[in-house]
Amino acid sequence: MQKIKIHLFGFYSLFKEILLVLVGLLVFIPLSFLGVIYTISKHILLLDYSVKRQIQPILRNFILSVDGFANATAGELLNDVFKIKQESKLRYGKWYQTISAVTGLLKVYANKDTWLRKMLKILGKNHCEEAITEMEHEYYIKEKNR
What we know:
Layout: H1 2-45, H2 51-81, H3 99-110, H4 115-119, H5 127-130, H6 134-145
């Protein structure tokens, strides 16, 4: 009986998450498109339109969000492909990190170079290393010294 309760609770939690995703998609996708259209229209009408000020931040945030989503959803796949151990502190799969940053962290702090890092060089010679935030550097330096 206890085992059935645990499975039902897991199913209920999963159902709540799926429902939250659906509501989020129904609200945030239309809101995002409306926000982009509003921003462009507003600044064209005010004659102070600047791609650098208005569109680039929107696109950059979108790209970072998609990258974090891809890292979260494909994390297990990337960890298995690159043979990253389960107990490793440096792993793909965290929604708040980009794939590039994790790839750079693996190179810098675990001396693990991947074909993915080499492929991402098309975005810049040191793209993955430059994608690492200062806070990530500080955290992994402390972890390495433990």
